[in-house]
Structures are given as structure tokens and as C-alpha cells.
Give the backbone structure.
Amino acid sequence: MKPSEQIDQLIAGIADWRRETFAGVRKAILAADPEIVEEWKWMGSPVWSRDGIIAVANAHKGKVKLTFDHGARLPDPDKLFNAGLEGNQRRAIDFFEGDTINERALQDLVRAAVAFNQSKPKKKAAR
């Protein structure tokens, strides 16, 4: 099964408000950049990448968590990050029941993550 199909299946299996939230987060991420790739990693986590990991999402009890791999290095003028603020690499957004997704701000954050990934020096392939 392709990663996008696995993510479709995961979302379809969520039986409450988190289904719509998860689908909305996914839609906003994919709309931010047409070259973003969906992946399925770590025994069942949706991951979005472009020139490196951008973010991973999971539906937890009572919330949908979107964790940005290099969130601590990204500008967040709209103050979307509300979890994982103590770390020096990752930052997360916890969406709770009734929260609305600020699509513009989320897409700006995704684009900043892509720009960060593209700014990192490329590793040379092993010979």
C-alpha cells in the first residue's frame, strides 16, 4: 500500500472529531507546496517531507498532534506552536476538539520548514 493510501486508511479509521481535524491538517500541508511527499514511518506515523522531514502527525486520545522536526528553528509569528516548547529541536501543535485550523499560518509554517530543510548543507553520498 502506498503511504497516501495508508494515511487515507488511518484517517478513515478515526471515529470522532479528530478525523476532520487530521484531514484538514493534511490538506493544508499538501496545499503549502506541491513537491511535499507523504511517507509512512515508525510503524504507523504519517510523515510529510521535502528535502528532509517537515512534520509528523498522530491522533492521540483527545487531540491531533502535529510535530515539526526542526520547529525550534522556524519562525512562528502566528504562535501556532503550543507543545514541545521546552525542546531545542522539535515543536508541536496540539489541536483539540473545537479548535479551528489556521490554514494560512500552518502553510506558512510548512513553507518555512521546507526552506529550512533546503538551507541545510547536502550530505555527500558514500562511495
Remarks:
- Residues 3-119 form a domain with the Aspartate Aminotransferase, domain 1 fold (CATH 3.90.1150.200).
- The longest strand covers residues 53-60.
- The chain has a mean pLDDT of 94.
